[in-house]
Amino acid sequence: MELEAMKDAVVVALEDIKARDIVVMNVKKLTSMTDYMIVASADSNRQTRALSDNVQKKLRELGAHILGVEGEESGEWVLVDLGGVVVHIMQPKIREYYNLEQLWGGPSMSKKLELPHPPSHP
After folding, report:
1. What is the CATH topology of the domain spanning 3-102?
2. Would the pTM of this model clear 0.85, i.e. be above it?
């Protein structure tokens, strides 16, 4: 599966289950382990696991191979390794503590996805 298509499919799978604060980081110049890291927030252990399950299901349907999954037992931080794309699904306190976006290059290396919000009503 093409890397860009894999990255985009992960984002769609995360959006399907209402992940928050999705950040896509191009890290290919920083590590030989992967090309992209995607970080997303979930509000509960249940949602973290549901997001992981949906990413795995959607990517398998597209022919991607899941290399590994870690952290599903606790549900606080689940990592899905797709080779060229590594997905981190974290609860907010864990995400804030580890601050992967800053660790892997800061804002210049990441792209936060802004989802459209409905207009506010007075």
Report:
1. Beta Polymerase; domain 2 (3.30.460)
2. no
